[in-house]
Give the backbone structure.
Amino acid sequence: MNLICQQEAIDQLKLLAEHQQHGVIIVGNPGNGKTHLSRMYAEFLRISDFYIINPVMADLKSMISTCIDNKNPVVLCIENLDEGVVQIAYPLLKLIEDCPRHIYIVVTCNNLYAVPDTILSRCALVTINPPTRSDIEQYAKVKDPSAYELLHEKKIWSYIKWLSEVDIVLNFTPEHLKYFNDLAKIPASQDTVANISWRLQHYEDKTETPINLVIRYLMQFLSIGHQRACLECLNDLEANRIGKNAIISKLVFELKYTK
């Protein structure tokens, strides 16, 4: 599956593989295929050993030790470094600086500003563009053709922005669709800020909603001023600036008590 949004990044990774680049950072919004492109980089390098590592100190140290002893060519993918603990930055930096010839490091992140400058300066940066509508349609058709046929004409479909949201919507039940159909009633209710915040973040069965998609869908029912508040909220969520609960509570307060 060749997606338009990924083509520029793929071309960059091919070039980096030709030059045997040992440190690469792939940045893009959640669900845009960063891990998929990391695997592609291993393929471009003709390396079959590919390992995904969570940004946790114990996992990183254990895998580094194993790979150094093994001596086989390997690509290590440290996923979502911007969501990991600060303590892993130093051992990761040392590995990139003194990287053995058989080890290649690919770091993925959503928020580039959360990655230490010392790591940024020692890696090649590859950015994935946002998916086009054509990408979203193509991805959905390949992922689940039958679910796509049932859902692509539903109103919620036009509010999908990221590939990860395609995965979510393709698994929607009738109850999920009903939740979105009734969504405008939630912030308009006389409930408390805390309860409305909870209801925006959870379905009736208490499972979590795709909150970015919820806010984007909700915006169609709001005034221009409240739409701006939603956009600020979405930016904060995507940049992972503060906790989700705090962001949503702030938004609900804006919706209830400001004009």
User: Anything to note?
Assistant: The longest strand covers residues 103-109. The two ends are 46 Å apart (CA to CA).
